[in-house]
Design a protein that fits this description.
Layout: H1 3-13, H2 17-30, H3 34-51, H4 56-65
Helix pairs in contact: 1-2, 2-3, 3-4
Length: 80
């Protein structure tokens, strides 16, 4: 088990979502396999969404760029 795996397990045990976002993002950055990187990046994005993390948009943009998420449609004008 790698040091990163141990840190991820400890962050899960402590319910430290901020650490989970950072650690999963790091795991995605360090992964040489595209599928594995997308897996880690998706986890980082989900934990970021749960806590309203400031990197939500950046993480989503990376998923879109990797072809793992669809771009959001343009906002609709309000109904009157």
């Amino acid at each position: 088990m790698s040091a990163l795996d141990r840190e991820l397990l400890a962050a899960h045990a402590a319910s430290d979502r901020a650490a989970l976002v950072a650690l999963y993002r790091l795991a995605a950055d360090e992964s040489a396999d595209a599928d594995q990187a997308a897996f880690y990046l998706t986890h980082a994005h989900v934990f970021a969404l749960e806590m309203g993390h400031p990197e939500v948009a950046a993480l989503r943009a990376r998923l879109v760029a990797a072809g793992r998420e669809s771009p959001l449609p343009p906002p609709r004008p309000p109904l009157r």
